[in-house]
Amino acid sequence: MPNRAGTFTIEIRKRPWWFWALAAVWIPLEVLLLQTALASARESESRAAAISWVAFGVLAAAGVLAAIVQGRSPGRDDPANS
Fold first, then answer.
1. Helix H or strand E encompassing 18
2. Is 19:70 a contact under the CB 8 Å cutoff?
3. Choice between 51 and 73, residue whose per-residue pLDDT is larger
4. Taken in order 69, 74, 78, 82, is the CA torsion positive or negative?
5. DSSP label at 77?
6. pTM metric for this prediction
7. How far is CA 30 from CA 6, 34, 51, 71, 76, in A?
8. Is-contact 30 56, C-beta < 8 A?
9. Residue 82 pLDDT more than 50?
């Protein structure tokens, strides 16, 4: 049903259980990689720090992308469905 002029509808959808399970693994792994990168840099282990920073960045980007993609409904932003 279309909205009347001047009204907005906010739709809240639950995420599946497996999304939260992956998030529960992802967050501690991000913290671990961040701590490893900082500790390696402090100990002048530049290779280990660089590897940890790259792994931290890739995992962070993948997690943010997964959260964005999971939150979108299929076909909603498709102009062909308008």
1. helix 17-42
2. yes
3. 51
4. negative
5. S
6. 0.68
7. 42, 6, 13, 21, 31
8. yes
9. no
